[in-house]
Input
Amino acid sequence: MTDNSPEPRSGGQPPRAERGGLWGLFFGMAGLLLPPYGVVLSVFGVVQGFRARRTARTNRTEAPGALLSVVVGALGVVMSLALFSVAVVYQEQMEEYRTCSALAHTVSSQEECDEAWESSTGLPPTVVIS
Output
């Protein structure tokens, strides 16, 4: 039977926690918040989370946030790819919506643009990347 408790380092110092998981979590969250760069940041968050888990396992320490980093990063990749696919599939409708929104100077004319977008795509206007 193996003991999974971390061994003290030389000199009697307790083992340090691997901080890569927290950095991965930071990059995964940034990927969710910054859609144009989301895929790159989210992938980096996933990779950093896996690296932190592997390093912690090798050093018999903990990696706080490593698993959450992988989950949030994967969610960021999925969200970024979904937004990219909407931009590719509805390219013409997005151009029309942007043109209409640029010319809309009142709330009612902007609502007409929103209704035209929803009727042509079936998606809410919040999906449009401005």
